Amino acid sequence: MGITINIYYSGTNGNARKFAEEMLLSGVVDEIRAEKGNLRYEYFFPMNDAETLLLIDSWENQRALDIHHQSPMMQKIIALREKYNLSMKVERYITDEAGVPDKDRAFIKAVCE
Asked: What is the pLDDT of residue 1?
């Protein structure tokens, strides 16, 4: 059972973007992506809100996420979040192991190569 967490970081004066840039440049993002059980760790910027950053963070299971939360990595993330004075809104999703139902597949365009 995979777990995906959407974290919306919000701040002022471009701080959400600065946070993401420092996370990337400092190597923290690469370290997180290399953790056992991490499936996805990507940032996105909403088109209609320049002060918000969306992180999509996916893990194989709760155990992998718990280990991540116990790691020294979390202290780095918290320190940067505080440095940039960001607030957070969190959404949590559990992967549907059955996948996309056949009746919904008609609405999905395959990736072009």
From this structure: 79
